[in-house]
Design goal:
This protein has about 200 residues and is α/β, with parallel strands linked by helices. It has six helices and nine strands. The radius of gyration is 23 Å and the shape is elongated.
Length: about 200
Amino acid sequence: RGVYARRDGSDFRIGRAPTRTQETESARIQFRWSGMVLAEIEVDDDLRADAAETVATLRAQGIAVEILSGDAEPAVRRVAEKLGIEEWHARVSPEQKQRHIERGGKGSRAIVIGDGVNDALALRDAYIGLAFSRGDGSSVEATLASAHATVLAPRLRAIPELLDVARRYRRTLFRGVAFSVFYNLVGASLAVAGYI
């Protein structure tokens, strides 16, 4: 996993460090040159301030929340516990995320929210795929191109708001179609009876 290049007989690699016997909550990235580790850094993500509120709002709307993450188990467990999410999976590859969505079947209404290239396949195959801006100006083209919509606001709270707007739009559209059918049926009936 990661990025590989070869130049002048030397191999350069940047990617996830091999798993140690005890995993940490941080992601470990290694920089290698011809097999030698030049550097290793640990990267840790903080939860967004509105994450717990967003999860609670989605649940109140009847939406089950699940985490599929490529991160190590301790990090995913920590996030799931903080947010009260019981269904979570760690060290999930992009292909595993995609298969998880596909297992839901054609009638599945999975909403996938992702912010990285590893989410692109799941975003594409979801009922609704929302690419979420990281809020730091970075965007991953594969993620944005795979999603059905992109949330640009740096707030997770925008997600339940977007779903609420979509529900209201759907109700309005349904009412418009129902009125149109009713109007045409009444109009056609009056015309056949000779009143119009």
